[in-house]
Write a structure and sequence with these properties.
alpha/beta, Rossmann fold, seven-stranded mixed beta sheet, 7 strands, disordered N terminus, hydrolase activity, TEII, Orf(+17)
Amino acid sequence: MTDSDNGLWIRRFHPAPAGAPRLVCLPHAGGSASFYFPVSRALSPAVDVLAVQYPGRQDRRHEPCVETIEELARQVFGALRPWRDGPLAIFGHSMGASLGFEVARLIEAETGAPVAHLFPSGRRAPSRRRHETVHLLDDEGLLADVKKLSGTNAAVLGDPELLRAALPAIRNDYRAAETYEYTAGPKLSCPVTVFTGDADPKTTVDEARAWEEHTTGPFDLRVFPGGHFFLAQHQPAILRTISAALAPTTVN
């Protein structure tokens, strides 16, 4: 992978000083790196946020989308290689949580060392599968689900031109998330902190708690009032939890 290729994948909105812990942020289905701009701004300069931009959206809209979680994990893993000169923590929301799990597995398998911390958000544990077919609906049905979850910027949903541009990525990501199948393997050994909403139609509290089965490290579950995008209303509390978890890795 060339430096220019890596620049397409990683968005570092607020570079942090050397030695700051790094947090890789993985977007939800249909999402983009810019979703994490407020997170980067809030955590700067204590945490170096690396927001991942998937192909097929925004400035990468002319590139083909990656069709499976497994292949996307391999590509993200490759894009992160230049950034693995220090510990990496991973945060992923919804589809990004499943992706983060697979990236963490690849890192631990290759290096023998776990990521610093895994923060899955708004997603059931990999071993808890549901039969979902939203990606097979027509455009109207797909958009109805997106609107119900309130996961896409309202400006996009209200602009026909932007919507046409975003739909292929949204459908692709829904398909990748809904057809993802966990393959049994060694457990992670990193700490895992899960965030979930108590009224999330995509994840029950029990399904979120099942993430504990996927690590031998410390586990914590944080439940917030709200639906699938509960994190929009509870960002300060979530970021305090992340900051506290990453603080021991900071170089003084």
